[in-house]
Design brief:
6 helices, globular, binds 4-nitrophenyl phosphate, 158 residues
Length: 158
């Protein structure tokens, strides 16, 4: 079976979406599903192209045994809508922006991450201006969401 190709998108591609990418990859590996998914992340903004993830995201990932230090920021582009099956925005603003970029007919690949993963119409809030505790909350939210996402993808495949 071809892997499901998932792109996580946030604003800067340095806090939320690279952490989501690392968490989903790690959970998939733990569950023996690594060959069933491919995952990447991108930002709707271009301020952090080529940058490593925010050190607070790197630190919280490391505390949970995940290394995201090698990831680099990039901006989402039209070709991503061909290259990925699912494009999941971290918040509703990301989803709106993705809708403006999507080539005609490919808007159906876009969804809100927690909406798709667990049926909750809820944003993953931007932690950029918050303290370190916000990054632990972010991690917990992403871990729960990615675990539900894997369950949903397993159901979809069976
Ligand atoms: P992210 O957080 O969207 O979770 O990566 C942000 C990082 C940087 C900026 C905004 C949000 N910024 O404006 O530079």
């Amino acid at each position: 079976m071809k892997p499901v190709r998932i792109l996580f998108v946030c604003l800067g591609n340095i806090c939320r979406s690279p952490l989501a990418e690392g968490v989903l990859r790690a959970l998939a590996a733990q569950k023996g599903l690594a060959s069933q998914i491919s995952v990447d992340s991108a930002g709707t903004g271009g301020w952090h192209i080529g940058d490593p993830p925010d050190r607070r995201s790197v630190a919280v990932a490391r505390r949970h045994g995940i290394d995201i230090s090698g990831l680099r920021g990039r901006k989402v582009s039209k070709v991503d809508f061909e290259a990925f099956d699912l494009i999941l925005g971290m918040d509703r603003e990301n989803v709106r922006t993705l809708g403006q970029i999507a080539p005609a007919g490919l808007e159906g690949k876009i969804d809100l991450f927690l909406g798709y993963a667990c049926g909750r119409d809820q944003d993953v809030p931007d932690p950029y201006y918050d303290g370190p505790e916000a990054f632990e909350r972010l991690y917990q939210m992403l871990e729960a969401g990615c675990s539900s996402l894997l369950d949903r993808l397993e159901e979809r495949a069976s």
